[in-house]
Write a structure and sequence with these properties.
84% of the residues lie in helices and 0% in strands. With 151 residues, the protein is mostly helical.
């Protein structure tokens, strides 16, 4: 079904077509990225790789899937943080992914209106990011804390 819009200005038509074409292209490339990450997750051997992939999926998947990937990420990280030595580089990678997952959990609670829980998760994430000296992670947690406090 086509919707006809009365546009007298050819420039408006051009910009409307560009917007439609680019939105379809962005959606398609997003799906390709998520599909590639899903395939990589299936064949990943090490838990460190699985953590990184789950973290990426949690940030790139659509609304219906990212929460599930985030929960899988948290479970995998919790399991591995107990068994991996703190001296091992894998510990740092897993802890960073865990902090990202906790930060995401804070976003989930913010969206649900549970602001006290959200602030608790976000502060936990911020503390982990500070331990790791992860400045990008710290800025993300601080930003998300600001969002939680303004709601």
């Amino acid at each position: 079904m086509f919707i006809f819009i009365k546009l007298r200005n050819p420039l408006k038509i051009f910009f409307l077509l560009c917007a439609v074409i680019s939105s379809k292209h962005l959606s398609f490339s997003q799906n390709k990225t998520v599909d590639s990450l899903k395939t990589a997750l299936k064949i990943a051997v090490s838990d460190t790789s699985r953590c990184k992939i789950l973290s990426l999926l949690a940030s790139k998947a659509d609304e219906n899937e990212w929460v599930v990937y985030n929960e899988q990420l948290l479970q995998l990280c919790e399991k591995n943080l107990k068994s991996v030595s703190r001296d091992n580089i894998a510990y740092l990678v897993i802890k960073k992914c865990y902090a990202e997952g906790i930060d995401n959990k804070g976003l989930i609670e913010t969206d649900a209106g549970n602001f006290e829980k959200a602030v608790e998760f976000l502060n936990t994430s911020l503390n982990m990011q500070q331990e790791l000296n992860d400045k990008i992670g710290m800025s993300s947690s601080l930003n998300n804390l600001g969002v939680a406090y303004t709601k």
